[in-house]
Design a protein that fits this description.
There is one protein chain. The protein is α/β, with parallel strands linked by helices and about 260 residues long. It has two domains: about 10-45 and about 185-260, HAD superfamily/HAD-like (Rossmann fold, 3-Layer(aba) Sandwich); about 85-180, 3-Layer(aba) Sandwich (Rossmann fold), CATH 3.40.50. It has helices at about 30-40, 55-60, 75-85, 100-105, 130-140, 165-175, 185-195, 210-220; strands at about 10-15, 20, 25, 40-45, 70-75, 90-95, 110, 120, 145, 155, 160, 180, 205-210, 225-230, 245-250. The strands form four sheets. A six-stranded parallel β-sheet has the order 5-4-1-13-14-15. A five-stranded parallel β-sheet has the order 7-6-8-9-12, sandwiched between helices. Helix 3 (about 75-85) crosses helix 7. The longest helix has 12 residues, at about 75-85. The two termini are about 15 Å apart.
């Protein structure tokens, strides 16, 4: 910590850092409360594009984590920001849920099936073969291909479900066109979050539980990276990667004193 400027902004992954399998990580409530009380700018990040920030805020409040909607940054918001910057006032054919369609509407995009500028693929619990077929035909006709995140599988009570990355691979196989993934591990996700809170990389920390998404994207965005061991990565697995986090902590409970 002494090798960096003081941390003015905090970015944190959601699943595996603040909660695990729908249960708050011990100390997560105290960590969030310390962030709010300190007045530090912070965002909770998630690659999940299904829900709006308000939806996620209500869900977290239900398990005792008070995170306001304006402190949540999803891959849907990052995708909408990216498209707004790339092609303002454009159009898109969307496969996804309210989190993605709402974000695109609010960024000034028109959602259409007729010659859209982009096909935008997000997460949904009910991928439609008809919708996927339409996306393939639109891409074949010249629409650009964007996907919110590369996660291949997602969790459910019954087990794994195919997620955005898996469906994107199907579309790519059919069209020969690779999507541009906006969410983690693309550092674009981090940079868009920094822009949203007017943060700077040299004074921002990123907390995550995955080396291959949270830590690598934080590192590539120039952030101070902290791996917590309450998610999918164990301490023994860290050395298997060619890059390292700035710090390894057992959980966010061990980071409360870092918030000044």
């Amino acid at each position: 910590m002494n090798e960096r400027k003081s941390i003015d902004c905090w970015l944190s992954d959601m699943d595996g850092v603040l909660l695990h399998e729908g249960v708050p990580v011990p100390g997560a409530d105290a960590f969030i409360r310390k962030l709010r009380d300190s007045g530090k700018r912070f965002l909770v990040l998630t690659n999940n594009s299904i829900y709006t920030p308000r939806d996620l805020s209500v869900r977290m409040r239900g398990i005792g984590l008070e995170v306001p909607p304006e402190a949540i940054w999803t891959s849907a918001l990052a995708t909408a920001r990216f498209l707004r910057d790339q092609r303002p006032g454009g159009s898109a054919y969307v496969i996804g849920e309210a989190g993605l369609t709402t974000a695109l509407h609010e960024s000034g995009y028109v959602l259409t099936e007729t010659a859209p500028d982009y096909v935008v693929l997000g997460e949904t619990r009910t991928y439609s073969f008809t919708a996927i077929t339409r996306a393939i035909r639109l891409i074949d006709s010249g629409s650009r291909f964007i996907a919110t995140n590369p996660d291949a599988v997602g969790p459910s009570a019954e087990g794994s479900l195919p997620a955005c990355g898996a469906v994107a691979a199907m579309i790519t196989k059919a069209t020969g066109v690779e999507p541009y993934f906006v969410g983690k591990p693309n550092p674009m996700m981090m940079r868009s979050a920094l822009n949203a809170i007017d943060g700077h990389s040299e004074s921002t920390a990123m907390i995550g539980d995955r080396m291959d998404t949270d830590i690598v994207s934080g590192m590539e965005a120039g952030l101070y990276t902290i791996l917590v061991l309450t998610g999918v990565t164990t301490k023994e697995q860290v050395d298997r990667y060619p890059f390292r986090p700035s710090r390894v902590a057992a959980s966010v409970a061990d980071l409360i004193d870092l918030v000044e």
